[in-house]
Amino acid sequence: MPTESAPVRVGIAGHINLTRDTELLVADALRAELRRISDRPVHGVTCLAAGADQIFARTLLDMGGTYEVILPARDYRTAVIAPENRATFDELLARAAAVVQPGYDRSDTAAYVAANRELVRRVQRLVAVWDGDPGCHAAATDRTVDWARQQGVPITILWPVGARRTKAGD
């Protein structure tokens, strides 16, 4: 357990495909939740996916916090991050306090599940940016929330009024 001066360790799980307006709503909701969780900077754990994860990383930095990144697989950047989003991904990755790679070569469901479980293992609480709908694969947000519950990790679900996804499936 952390000492009085150690930052609270908070993980993020959440949807990738958020509308631009929803990204702004989520950033505001995350800022409020992080202030509620702790009166000092938070240390985050993220897989740095598009959407909720990257909003979380930027919000932590804006609030004076730090984060570590769990990269699901060695090919994650080239296989998953769209070319037009790689500069943002690279900048956020470079600002991480640590980068952990669980050992998978290929970005697939097994790698994402392993990364999500490693993320949950490293945190004291989980924030999920989730609309409540079931996912379509074993690494979906609902499965990560279920895993955290099974591990006894406290969870906060954030889905601000007016939030929308651009498409289902994440």
SSE string, helices as H and strands as E: EHEHEHHEHEHE
Mean pLDDT: 93
Strand content: 15-25%
Radius of gyration: 15 Å
So how many helices?
A: 6
Low-confidence stretches: none
How many DSSP E strands? 6
Domain count: 1
CATH class: Alpha Beta
Give a structural overview:
The chain has 170 residues and is of the alpha/beta class. The chain has one domain: Rossmann fold (3-Layer(aba) Sandwich), CATH 3.40.50.450. It has six helices and six strands. The protein has helices at residues 20-37, 52-62, 76-80, 86-94, 109-121, 141-150, and strands spanning 9-14, 43-46, 66-70, 98-100, 125-129, 155-158. It has a six-stranded parallel β-sheet, with helices on both faces. The longest helix has 18 residues, at 20-37. It is globular and about 40 Å long. The model has no long low-confidence stretch (mean pLDDT 93).
List keywords for this structure.
alpha/beta; 170 residues; six-stranded parallel β-sheet; Rossmann fold; globular; DUF1273 domain-containing protein; single chain; 6 strands; 39% helix
Write the SSE topology.
Blueprint: E1 9-14, H1 20-37, E2 43-46, H2 52-62, E3 66-70, H3 76-80, H4 86-94, E4 98-100, H5 109-121, E5 125-129, H6 141-150, E6 155-158
Parallel strand pairs: 1-2, 1-5, 2-3, 3-4, 5-6
Helix pairs in contact: 1-2
Question: How would you briefly describe this protein structure?
Answer:
This protein is an alpha/beta fold and about 170 residues long. The chain has one domain: Rossmann fold (3-Layer(aba) Sandwich), CATH 3.40.50. The chain has helices at about 20-35, 50-60, 75-80, 85-95, 110-120, 140-150; strands at about 10-15, 45, 65-70, 100, 125-130, 155-160.
